[in-house]
Amino acid sequence: MKKYDKVTFISRSDTCRAPIAEALMQTKLLLEDIIADSRGMIVLFPEPVNPKAQEILQNHQVALEGHEAAQLTRDDFDERTLMLTMEQGQKEKILEEYADAAKNVYTLAQYCGRTGDVESPLGKDLPAYEACFQILKELVDQLADVIKKEDEA
Prior knowledge:
By secondary structure, the chain is of the alpha/beta class. It has a single domain (6-148), classed as 3-Layer(aba) Sandwich (Rossmann fold), CATH 3.40.50. Helix content is 39%, strand content 13%. It contains five helices and four strands, in the order βαβαβαβαα. A four-stranded parallel beta sheet has the order 2-1-3-4. The longest helix is centred in the C-terminal third of the chain and has 27 residues, at 126-152. It is globular.
């Protein structure tokens, strides 16, 4: 029996790391019955994906159409949703701000049995976005394996 119905990736603005992770997760056919989406910690208005992040996704033939940044809210939390932040500080802030609602909140690396943050490439050059993509790809591949093993257990 599957543990989660949904995986929500959380980054600062929901315009780069979280949407990339969402798009990568959507490519995992074995997880077709799990919804992947993303949210931001600070979203002032709905923005599209960062142009450099979009270029990297296109370079790897990974589709993410019509994405608009969305603010994380109390309604995003439930027992069947896995919430994965890019940074430890984001996880801590969520647990503090949503103490009464926060469930299943981990960093992406932590849930995969690793340590460290996925650093933001915002404001850097295209190779930095590529490096971020590669880190996220490795983590999302590992995440898919972890979720599959949990579902089989």
